[in-house]
Amino acid sequence: MSDLQIVADALRRARHLVVFTGAGVSAESGIPTFRDALSGLWQRFDPGELATAAAFRRDPALVWGWYEWRRAQVLKARPNPAHLAIAELARHVPQLTLVTQNVDDLHERAGSPAVIHLHGSLHQPRCFDCQRPFTRLAADPQEPAKGRRIEPPRCLQCGGPVRPGVVWFGEMLPEQALQQAFAAAESCDLLLSIGTSGVVYPAAHVPQLALDSGAVVAHINQQAFAPNSPREHSLVGPAGELVPALLQRAGWQ
Ligand code: BV8
Ligand code: ZN
Fold first, then answer.
1. Where is the active site (predicted)?
2. pTM, whole model, 2 decimals?
3. Average pLDDT over the chain, rounded to whole?
């Protein structure tokens, strides 16, 4: 029996499904993945260098410009068939917990009701100094021309620089989101890991926790994953094709 059918059968039987997504689920919406966010405007910067508080302190306009460039892309993008199929899954399984590492809002715009954002969101900026939410974000961000920097807006209360509402390297993840994700991984019977390279921790613990807790884990990725257990499967291909195919094989579409 094909891996696709094995996973589709596990999907039909699932009482509690966890869907864990990374940048690959938004790739077919035209959003560069974290690794190839280097392409285009930013190939001369290492995102691991830009996605840090130190980089923001050093050059707030460069980092703010990078995030505004990314936010402009998200606002222009549309959910793709993978986001839509994940939202559809919630209408068929008794319980679905959606956990994402992505900072875009494409899951929400595809209709997924509750999204656990482990690494925050581009759409919730806050003051770098006093942490107050900043609610005056431009509806249509200026797209920085090649290398142009954009001075971040100033906090209305304390005048501090506004930062993106994302979790940077070296920063703690939101405690409640992380606990919810771990608890769901420990109690699910199937976890679909979609479009993630699984290199960033502690988020990358989630699929392993599900596997260690006895769940079936399926990696949906353009790259093949070498399974470590008979309960681990690798479905190779674009998420925009494979997730709808799973829905069909489960007889739900
Ligand atoms: C923490 C938000 C601890 C920002 C992100 C030294 C100092 C400090 C910390 C560390 C350190 N060394 C290691 C660490 C830990 C560090 C870490 O794990 N580093 C890695 C690089 C080794 N982690 C942290 O720093 C975390 N915090 O540890 O705090 C602490 C303890 C005490 C006190 C204080 C702190 C915080 C990490 C959060 C970083 N923020 N995002 C932003 O977006 O700018 S991470 C970012 O990259 C993403 O959110 C994601 O999590 C991660 C990986 O990206 P992916 O989503 O997997 O995307 P990627 O491009 O890698 O892969 C895409 C995949 O999709 C590929 O597999 C590809 O094949 C596939 N694909 C592509 N197209 C498709 C597809 N699949 C299907 N269909 C397609 N069409
Ligand atoms: Zn402030």
1. 119
2. 0.96
3. 93
Band (pLDDT 50/70/90 cuts) for residue 146 is very low
Q: How far is the CA of 232 from the centre of ligand 1 (A)?
A: 22
**Predicted pLDDT of residue 147:** 58
Residue nearest to atom 80 of ligand 1 (CA): 238
Give residue-wise pLDDT tens across range 175-192: 999 999 999 999 999 999
Residue 230: its pLDDT value, please?
A: 96
Same domain, 84 and 99: yes
Find the CATH number of the domain harbouring 149: 3.30.1600.10
| Ligand 2: centre distance to CA 209 (Å) | 38
User: If 0-12 CB within 10 Å is exposed, 13-18 middle and 19+ buried, where does residue 137 land?
Assistant: middle
**Cis peptide bond upstream of 207, omega within 30:** no
Q: What is the pLDDT of residue 42?
A: 58
Q: How far apart are CA 35 and CA 242, in angstroms?
A: 22
Pocket (CB within 6 angstroms of ligand 1): 22-24, 27-28, 33-35, 48, 51, 101, 103, 119, 166-167, 169-172, 195-197, 199-201, 203, 221-223, 238-239
> Which residue lies with its CA nearest to atom 1 of ligand 1?
170
Residues 89 and 17 sit within 8 Å (Cβ to Cβ): yes
